[in-house]
Amino acid sequence: MDIDETLTGWGGQMITLRRDEHTGATFVVAIHSTARGPAAGGTRAMHYDSTAEAVDDATRLAEVMTMKMAAADLPMGGGKSVIALPAARHDIDEHTWHHLLAVHAENLRLLRGSYWTGPDVGTGSADMDIMHAASGFAFGRTEAAGGPGSSAPVTAHGVHVALTAGAARAGIGDLRDHRVAVQGLGAVGMDVVDRLIKDGAEVIATDVDRERCDRASTLGARIVAPDDIMTVESEVFVPCATGGVIDPAVADRIATRVVAGAANNVLSDPGAADVLNSRGIVFAPDFIANSGGAMHLVGREVLGWSPDEVSRHVESIATTLDEVFTLSDRDHISTETAARRIAGNRLNQEADDA
Ligand code: NAD
Ligand code: PPY
Questions:
Q1: What lines the ligand 2 site, CB under 6 Å?
Q2: What is the Å distance from ligand 2's center to 298 Cα?
Q3: What is the rounded CA–CA span in Å between residue 121 and residue 100?
Q4: Cα–Cα distance, 77 to 82 (Å, whole number)
Q5: DSSP per residue, 115-141
Q6: For the residues 44-48, what does the mean pLDDT come to?
Q7: Which residue of 100, 196, 224, 312 lies most exposed, with the fewest beta carbons within 10 A?
Q8: Start and end residues for every CATH 3.40.50.720 domain found in the chain
Q9: What is the 194 CA–ligand 2 centroid distance (Å)?
Q10: Per-residue confidence at 9, pLDDT binned at 50, 70, 90?
Q11: Which CATH superfamily is domain 152-291+319-344 in?
């Protein structure tokens, strides 16, 4: 993979790159679209094997933010930033981390509000407190600092709405006693497990972190090894770990009837959506299923919504998915293609009205 390959066909507006000589970290800010408003999307902090890989991740994630904002009808564009760390996030000491947050806050100031950040893998609300104080361009501060707090519970609510809508489409009325496989027991996945146990579902779950597995087990989930979750038989598969876990080969053998989860870019490429579609597996596109987090951040901080108003919008994820399912049926296309068409039409409409 090289940067030229990534840029060809990306269709985004701008990428900024910065190397911090002090730590060896590389910052990537990808602004995919500002057609609906300033670009927004979280800051992902993790180790990558190369700068090209970090740029590829940032650009793909930024594009999906454009789709997410349009599908949810939020007045923002799509962007994402990456802090490509010199080591794994947990091996970065506090002093170095604070230095990196200060550098990233300067990146935000240089971009003067054309990109707003928020939490993503490797960053959280406390980091947003620091970057907001230093730049004014971060969503998702803690409530103590005047923000709306973590988006994870709202994202989990939206994922639960999406998987329920997906199950209904697959002809599974009620999740009671149905097997649901959850991959990743972090802030979102654990909350989804809790909701599913309350539904009476038979939850099968995994994480690479043993303690998180123990907690899910206490909630009532049956734990399997991380490598086994993709082959476990289930009615619903809920990816809440990392992206790219379903490639065409996995799509061809996954033993489930519905895929709906939080992980961004869960499909490695659009071909995987076609394979799922051809097997009759209902796929809830991730940028719709996980849009609760964006509704929470933009709803609370830009639109002035109350928590109840955010909840009502999160419930509307079911209506958006119904539109997607209807278009997919009508035009014999995958739900991923249908969702992108709906979001794309909204963006084109915006451009025509401008
Ligand atoms: P998190 O970091 O709290 O949790 C991710 C979990 O996945 C961790 O417990 C980690 O140990 C586990 N994991 C990583 N690799 C794994 C593997 N191979 N097998 C099993 N488990 C593995 O993140 P989160 O906030 O819960 O978000 C989950 C996913 O949803 C992420 O991909 C994130 O980008 C996406 N997302 C989150 C939000 C939000 O509001 N938090 C919003 C939109 C999308
Ligand atoms: C995501 O939903 O993937 C995010 O990156 C979270 C987000 C949403 C809206 C603004 C900033 C961050």
A1: 40-42, 118, 120, 139, 264, 293-294, 297-298
A2: 9
A3: 15
A4: 17
A5: EEB-B-TT--HHHHHHHHHHHS-B---
A6: 98
A7: 312
A8: 152-291+319-344
A9: 23
A10: confident
A11: NAD(P)-binding Rossmann-like Domain (3.40.50.720)
